[in-house]
Amino acid sequence: MLVVGDHPHISYLGIAWTAASFVAMLALAYGKAVTDNALDNPVLRTEGRVTLVDAYLAGVVLVGLVLNAAAGWWWADPAAGYVIVFYGIKEGRGALRQAREH
């Protein structure tokens, strides 16, 4: 999309849904952190970190959608997708490296 210059359409419903997801993931991560502090549970601690990453990813998408809608930066939405792809590749490499070590 970014390479060929295809402009994404503005979706106010998509912005609202992504914003709600971002807020929900942040709240859920916070709740897991509070519960982990009370229980000292390593599984819950890890799950809370994963949920926080989910919130960050939703935040990246939200920024791209909002910049497209508010500033007309059509490239911000697909660029946000590339950020997520590069993050996924980084995490995948880390997981493979960790699996080889064990």
Kindly describe this structure.
- Helix 1 packs antiparallel against helix 2 and helix 2 runs antiparallel to helix 3 (76-101).
- The protein is mostly helical.
- It contains three helices and no strands.
- The radius of gyration is 17 Å and the shape is flat.
- Helix content is 82%, strand content 0%.
- The termini are far apart.
- The chain has helices spanning 12-39, 42-71, 76-101.
- The chain has one domain (12-101).
Order of helices and strands: HHH
Poorly predicted residue ranges: none
Query: What is the 3D form?
Result: flat
Q: How large is the count of helical segments?
A: 3
Helix content: over 70%
N- and C-termini, Cα separation: 39 Å
Q: Please give the number of β-strands.
A: 0
Structural class: mainly alpha
Number of domains: 1
What's the main sheet like?
Answer: none
Radius of gyration: 17 Å
In round numbers, the mean pLDDT is 91
Question: Strand share of the residues?
Answer: under 5%
